[in-house]
Write a structure and sequence with these properties.
It contains 13 helices and 20 strands. By secondary structure, it is α+β, with helices and mostly antiparallel strands. Strand 12 and strand 13 form a beta hairpin. It is globular, with a radius of gyration of 25 Å. It starts with 9 loop residues before the first helix and ends with a helix.
Amino acid sequence: MSEIKSNIDVITLRVIESFLLSVAEEMGIKMTKAAYSTNIRDRKDCSCAILDSSGHLLAVGEHVPAHLGPMGAVGKAIFSEYKSNEIKQGDIYMCNDSYMQGGSHLMDIKIIFPIFYQRDLAFFAVTAGHHSDIGGANPGSLNPNVTSIFQEGIRIPLVKLYAHGRRNNELLKMLLQNSRLPDERYGDIMSQVGAVKAAEERLLELTSKYGLGTIKQYSIAILNHTETLTRAMIQAVSDGIFQGEDYLEGDGIEDRLIKISIAVKIHKDTLHVDFSGTDAQTRGPFNMPADQTKGTIYHLVKCLLGAEGSFNAGLFKPITFNLPEGSLINPYEPSPTGMCTSEVPSRISDAFLKAMAQSGLSSVTSGWGGTRNIFFFSGLRSETKEPFVMLETYASGQGGRGGLNKDGLSAVPPYQSNSGNMSTEVLELEYPITSLGFELIRGSEGAGKYRGGLGVRRSLKILDCEAGMVSFTGDRRKFAPHGLYGGKPGRSGYQRLFRTDKERKMASKSSFEVKPEDIFILDSPGGGGYGPPWERDLELVLQDVKEGLITKERATSEYGVIILQDMMIDEKATSELRCDMKKQMVGE
């Protein structure tokens, strides 16, 4: 499959492919505009996709990368549970179970809608949304200290929410009864249903124009073309076995390092990822289902190799895996999985980056801040006694991008996240909390020829509420984001709680009660540097000082640049200092 087959018109292929992508994007817009929760409506923690009639991922919107693996595998779940003739027009399926094909953590509810054209199955439209509470031990359902999936909320196997166009209200009633926020759950679920129904109209428009036979022919061609492009990108990398490892800093139950080991074998146009040596599944909720693990690697390959074409099932074909059963990245039931989208994808990403750096791949960055910094705040509103659940994640610094001759970006989410933050106005309107500050942390970057991005400081004050509780999960507190090719590590993260002006120690994975007037301050990690700091362009160092990103003192100590009172560079003294720094490094 080195080229598009002669009976496929390239322009038509591009038109159909682009149309499918636009439908997935439109689904996301409709879903977020109709959703009730701030997590989907404002933070956009959701994804939308189109599958072909065989259940293969055909197109996905540019939403949350952590959803890609599960959404790419959910088609297998449909056909493993139902025969083709049992899938009927007007049926809409729902699921969230971690231990089914396409499983993720329970908070990600998927809605799957088979779309028929003149009685023939043509597509599936799929949405995934992170629901802020689906029951479980803690409000918000994400608890870093649970030990079983049964403590994390309701498990939904693949079931029909609609049959022949009629909604199963008894099923929906049962699901809503298991949430602390039933009205919000109803609104979010129906926003997903609305999105897949909107896709039906657009996809039938496409099929009516070209005919079902042509659509199926070009769907196969789209997948084949992506596979061809992916194989070409893999083949451009040197053959070899490249190894990397990283460590999760505890599982919420035990304060120990948990190893993730990766060996990437590239042979011609294939890429094999072996997780042998990865530690066993944890007692705490950081276990990652197999399809979630695969999706993490698919996304990394797409990003690092610069593979052209859409993100679809064609990308998956040249990539194979060894995922040891009972390990952190392929656990046995009923291990808890609630935090599987938080820290483990980032640890896999950094282990993969370290491995691919050995291949000489220029697109590899130094270590990212690499943590979701998940902040859950819940309780009862003082006046109405109604429950509330607030979910935020906070960005960190990206690693230096030497292959692109660029610094790391500041305040960006890790590889597997693409969700944003609520505006301060929405935050303070919706919840009994106020923002005291949201800023870049000066000097948090890893120094390098191409410096890492800066982390952020988020300061929040708890207002009047009852039964207030915070659950927090972060990483990169013990191991700073790594530098590359002589670059220095970024600054580690840190979190603390102030009560009556006294600082209280907080674990990086913990749940605790909060009271009005408590102040929570998070410092997220900065990205690692790329290349020796003394090679950084002098004017870029001066610019960083002028913009307040680093101090004059840091310019001297880390980059060997001496800046005078008038903001001019002492070039002679700088040259001598940099020469000494280089000698010291070589001597080491």
